[in-house]
Fold each of these.
Amino acid sequence: MTKDMTRGNPIKLILLFSIPLLIGNIFQQFYNMADTVIVGRTIGVTALAAVGATGSISFLVLGFVQGLTSGFSVITAQRFGAGDEAGVRRSFATSVLLSIASTAVVTTISVLGARPLLELMQTPSDIIDQSYAYIVCIFFGIGATVFFNLLSGIIRALGDSKTPLIFLIIACIVNIVLDFVLIVNVHMGVAGAAVATVAAQLLSGVCCLVYMFRRFSILKLKKSDWKFDPAFAWEHLRVALPMAFQFSITAIGVVVVQSVLNGFGSTSVAAFTAASKIDQVATQPLLSFGVAMATFTAQNYGAGHFHRIREGVKKCVVVTIAASILGAAVVIIFGGALTRLFVGNAAAEVISLSRTYLTAVSLFYWVLGLLFIFRNTMQGMGRALVPMSAGVTELVLRVVASFTLAKALGYLGVCLASPLAWIGAAVLLCIFYVRTMRTIPNEDEPAPPTTV
């Protein structure tokens, strides 16, 4: 069930790997979006704003654990590309141990800090209680998020992007059903939406676990694989921690943007929330190409096939730009209609503000696509500090833009903060990519030691 990406046409492999990943990511967005749609249509615009106000905090914490587990799978993919089956098993076992420890720490900090952070962000008083009820349930379920992200990441590291798709589809259906049951029938309010999301992720993780041990003989761990080696653990952490902090650094900027946005009132928050959900679905092809590049690069880097990395990047850039133009056209044309899925026809101001966001942001999708390609390529080679540096750049630009442009342009200025941050980060990543490839041989040879 593994897929060796060190042989065959690079762009064909990347696209074939991306397609299931894209469908899976869209379904993941759908079951995240299901909370928002069902809350907005069954409880009301205020509840929609309450869930939306937690988006940046959720990204801050869940992005950290997602980056952490993604970093662990980079080492697994490199060992697989190098043909080191014992190394693959040891990497998997080490990743599990590190994930358990990190889950305990992150869950404790997040649950205790949820309410103070919402207050610090000046969450509107009419929605803060509902926001807290939602996000604290999500944080109590961080273990389910880590569980699924780690196992699905390991499966993808071995070249299988199809199986996580199946489990995400199942989770999406379960999440939607539970949303209706817990919100409409049990009357749990926004907390019901959070419980439904956690339960769906836990189910996906269990499915991954059962599948892995039945189909991947390479992952059948021995007692010796569980022996904790501090040096080998550090090899994982020195890649994973910068990736995790890169997500969190980006998320801090999003938290600042959310804080500025909160000052415009709950109507603007609701519009921004609905538009963000549409935006996240529209950019999934770009994200999928980036994730595919991470696995493709890691396997070929481990095998010493550097010319394939160069070829893969060049061709993926062309495909990404084409997908960006198409995605922008769709959201600009259909943005208003899509927003009505969240709020119905009554909230005319919400629909108008949502279209403003989608038009402003979609024009820069091509920049975001390039950012994903270069960031994930650098991560696949183990250069995790480079994306983190780009994340710092993104943070600074997003914070500065959100305050200055909000004063000058109002709500539109808040919408433009992210595109300006993408531009700065993408330029930096492009420069680092070119410099890094100059240090790597044009001809294939054993991979140099992984450095951050």
Note: Residues 306-343 form the longest helix (38 residues).
Amino acid sequence: MSSREQILARVRAAVAGAPEVRIPRDYRTTGAEAGRVERFAERVRDYKAVVHVVPAAEVAATVADALSRRGARRLVVPDGLPERWLSAAPSVERLVDDPPLTAALLDAADGVITGCAVAVAETGTIVLGTGPGQGRRALTLVPDYHLCVVLDEQIVPSVPEAVARLDPARPLTWISGPSATSDIELNRVEGVHGPRTLEVVIAL
């Protein structure tokens, strides 16, 4: 008998005859619909990300202004990103991921622009699911600047509602603000495992 089998046998013996315990599954699965966009914007700002809340018709101009302020001239653009989002920035060089961009090319880019799969108002989290306009995970983890466009209808109140919209077979990237970590002395370091700057355009 292996060590694993011995341990499991002891556990079974210890719980033999114990009454069955009912585990309640009545936890909250929905959140408040009212004010979800404002709540999402507030949470994202709390993470020290730059946030713009604009009408859908102003997304292109807002994106162009953001890229201009950043001085971004070479931008990673995943396949399937709506063309209209970059229509006001014709001078920006677009780096497409076909053939796949190397880590060196991604690192040399001025940033990346994406859409998202879903966003969570309660936590200020953006989820990328490698779908159209999102690209593979490396596209948003290597560049130092990430500009993300989030549509009003993509914002859900709670995490369970976000999970219900996602495809579990796809690689998922959950983003809660710019990349940052702290060591045991609480020294904050940014950009270790993702972009140091996150800018979000919320389209109403």
Note: The chain has a mean pLDDT of 90.
Amino acid sequence: MERNMTQHYRALIGGEWQQGRRGSFAVDDPATAQVVAMVADVDVSQVDLAIEAADRAFDRWRRLSAQERCDLVLLWHNRLQENRQRLAELITLESGKPMAESLGEVEYGASYLKWYAQQGVRANGQTLPALPGGRRPMTVKQPVGVVGVITPWNFPLAMIARKVAPALAAGCAVVIKPAAETPLTALLMAELAQEAGIPDGVINLVPGSDAAVIGHRLCTHPKVRKLSFTGSTSVGRLLMAQSAERVQKLSLELGGNAPFLVFDDANLEGAVSGLMASKFRNSGQTCVCANRILVQRGIYDDVIARLKARMAALTLGPGALPGTDLGPLISDRALTRVEALVRDAVASGARLTMGGSRSPKGERFYLPTLLESVTEDNPIWTQEIFGPVVAVTQFDTEEEGVRLANSSEAGLASYLYSDNLPRAVRVAEALEYGMVGINEGIISSAVAPFGGIKSSGLGREGGQEGLEEYLETKYLCLGGIG
């Protein structure tokens, strides 16, 4: 990741660090809104060069043994661990999240490299029962090919690791388009991959300000056989349409609108702790944040009292300062959007009982906010808030709670708190979501499949399922065996 004293960063194409043919774009610190770096702004011709470099590298990379590839992925994991502080500082600088969260993201992201370094050697085919006529059927697993990777700004390290680790372990080469808001962490990751010995061209990184053009090219270039995208549902639909002509393999992790149900038989302190962990992580800017809080009527006042006390104790400030719980929102646009959501929610009948305004800490800081009496016809009910806003409603029966929870086109993450085991199982099975946290607010793990249903996407990341996303199953039929 070459840079000079003015903090200019370059793209990585075929093992070479290159300037952007469109010049450079600025990256700022959300806590201060000050520009902290200029990054190469690639054009579509450079995207083509990166794809061609990945295609050449793929032919060599796939021919390595699975163990050789996975050993290199493990070395990359080690380099990330050795540079955890440096990486965390970059994450905080460009995303604004508190340092404790940034360090946690490095650990979390690195865990995917370690997991797939161990799992990649287990991409096994099968020998099937013999067929009539002396035929022997079998299957083999082969890498998909060149993979386009488009990642969001809210987890600039973890989202790359979650996609690229299984791709490399499977034998694929990648072209990564990081979010324009947070490319610096991605560039350092690529530098560390080079230091780990991953061959030139296996990882290419094309930062750019024109996401639409880069995304379109990754969908339409004939040598890109798969696209993995994390981002909004609207952009996911567009990419899916662009990929349709070539029937490109897709993994889409799209928007969420997570319900968080608290039943009257729950451990209330545990439920509020789980809600705080889920809702306020990265200042509410994650796709699996608790978004719609549903509390059974008999415990409502108790839960709200506990929640207000915990929210009032949160410390806002720049992520680099010790003791910070909540950092800024990522951009002026993000803050303006959250303000508008809260304003419209109140205009539609919600009660603002805490927060609801900008904080004096800085231009992009928004106070922890509590909205009560949020009905399902309130516009905030259908929106992914992406901010430190808790929207709460009450329900009476288990059936009503499940119906309210499922009243969304999103189907990514959901949460329920109940100490009644039969109820917990019933509700978990009834929730129309790809993931369910049962008495737990933090659910992501390298060992488990991450992904949604309905309009929240296609495919899974993490676990053995994540490796399968980058493999094709080929059937071989051997005749004349006798």
Note: The longest helix spans residues 99-119.
Amino acid sequence: MFQFHLDHTDTSSSARCGRWETPHGVVETPAFMPVGTRGSVKGVWPHQLAETGAQMILANTYHLTLRPGEKVVQELGGLHEFMGWNGPILTDSGGFQVFSLGALRQLDDDRVVFKSHIDGSILDLTPARAMQIQEDLGADCIMCLDECPPHDAPVSKLEEAVARTTRWAQICRETHKRADQALFGIVQGGIHPQLRERSAEGLLKLDFPGYAVGGLSVGESPEEMYRTLDFTTPMLPKEKPRYLMGVGRPIDIIEGVLRGIDLFDCVMPTRNARNATAFTSHGTVKMRNLKYQTDREPLDSECDCSTCQQFSRGFLRHLFTVGEMLGPMLLSVHNLRFYQRVVTELRSAIKSNSAQEFRREHLARMRDGP
């Protein structure tokens, strides 16, 4: 039901391209997954997501459990029918909220107890409960419950997080029952090689269908993240998909691919779009800038998305100036298409053994500016 085919590895780096077979379709890797935290990628219809080139999308266990509740989603046919998305879906376990909602949770070796950010109600999330919720939601790929500590946590806290994540992974492995879901283990350990190795060793014994690298893009510098990937990714099985959670900027995706990562997700394309910032072939564009007021050119002359094919920079700036909701929607479509173009072009570069050259060209274009 789940098979990962490694088709080619770049001769000048660890970049690789492959195909991951899932119950709802094949994902060509490397791949970027748009984030639909609450069951919707903000401002974008499912058919528009498909038109951008998205193959797989992500939703969040914590948020969907609070509203509308996993049983409601199950009653409405599971996530695919609920969201109107026929392709593969991945759900995070709520482990990132251990980090992002630190002020609203209590953590011990058995569970994390959240005080809802919505109404103060209690969500008691154990590893077994995380599995039950994700089985009810029905995503193709699901994640073990883990502890994602902040990047500046003391080593003693990172050691505790690694130990807790490993214990919870074993419970998740034993509890999870659905054969039509791939359960991923999550490697933690901050930016410390020994802790990452300890975490990977504990998870590899459990023989997960795939492995994620967690605990990055949480405040460390890009250089620290890349260095951590340098020593972490080789610890993970070559024959299984590797997922870098919550990353990130286009250059971060490129750097991750060069280090052997296959799957990525991030809210950045749509979040930046809502804040009037576009990713283009020659750098970022701030759409509220007065210089675009009478600009008749498309947002990105090299982009084939519906936004660039139909609308001018002047019109897009107008939408943001007057607060029209169409502005964030059109920019979201463009940014998502930009990300998909990056990974599509990366796949081609890997097949021609030119991934390093692709990176150099991307950096040069970004320096040129829009």
Note: The chain has two domains: 3-266, 273-368.
